[in-house]
Amino acid sequence: MPIELKNATRIYTANAEVRALDDASLSVAPGEWLAVMGPSGSRKSTLVNLIGCLDQPTSGEVWINGMNVAQMSAVELNHFRAEKIGFIFQQFHLIPYLTALENVMLAQYFHSMTDQSEARAALERIGLADRADHLPAQLSGGEQQRVCIARIPGSFWPTNPRETWTRSMKKLSYGNYGNSMIRDGPSLWSRMIR
Fold it and tell me: Which end of the chain has fewer CB within 10 Å, C or N?
């Protein structure tokens, strides 16, 4: 899914005007790995929020998959985000009293409808079929992270069965079905295209 920012600016106004992003332009090709890194306060989150459709620029354009999301209404943006954007947060945000399977099905609910067999297939693809009925507290940190990967909508998954998510985010196999925005993790720098 190609991503392009064209002269994107984000200004916040409260007590004073803050230019969180100023005339930024960026192009990311489908399947390209990109690391977004910088010190605290360097506006990484602002950039990722624009690309993730959590915010819109004050001016400029944000093109994702051929659509200028900067021109979308709030309702259109919510629908686009639900259908096209997948997030894996540093904190996994798993519901503690739901099993791994139920956490995946909860994400499906917000996309359209739940499908237990599809949720089980997603867990199987990331090597957690045998942990589907475990609560988050019964899973390791890496397993919890993989449940988050399984929550990504099926349309983001590779069509080639040999092209699969591996058992570790550090060895994430990535095909031509999306883009990766990584804010932290210097150990991953060497794996980024740019």
Answer: C
Fold for 3-84, please state it: Rossmann fold (3.40.50)
- DSSP for 126-171, please give it: TT-GGGTT--GGGS-HHHHHHHHHHTS-GGGS-SSTTS---S-GGG
d(CA 51, CA 1): 12
H or E, element range at 121: helix 116-125
- Looking at 24-73, list the stretches that DSSP marks H as alpha helix, in order from N- to C-terminal side: 44-51
163 alpha-carbon distance from chain centroid? 19
**pLDDT for 134:** 95
Question: What local confidence, expressed as pLDDT, does residue 57 receive?
Answer: 95
36 contacts 185 by C-beta, under 8 angstroms: no
CB atoms within 10 A of CB 120: 18
Q: What is the pLDDT of residue 11?
A: 94
Please report, for the chain, the start and end positions of each structural domain, with discontinuous segments joined by +.
Answer: 3-84, 100-152
Contact 160, 31 (CB under 8 A): no
Question: Which of 16-25, 38-47, 149-158, 167-176: highest mean pLDDT?
Answer: 16-25
**Can you tell me the mean pLDDT for 62-81?**
91
If 0-12 CB within 10 Å is exposed, 13-18 middle and 19+ buried, where does residue 61 land?
Answer: middle
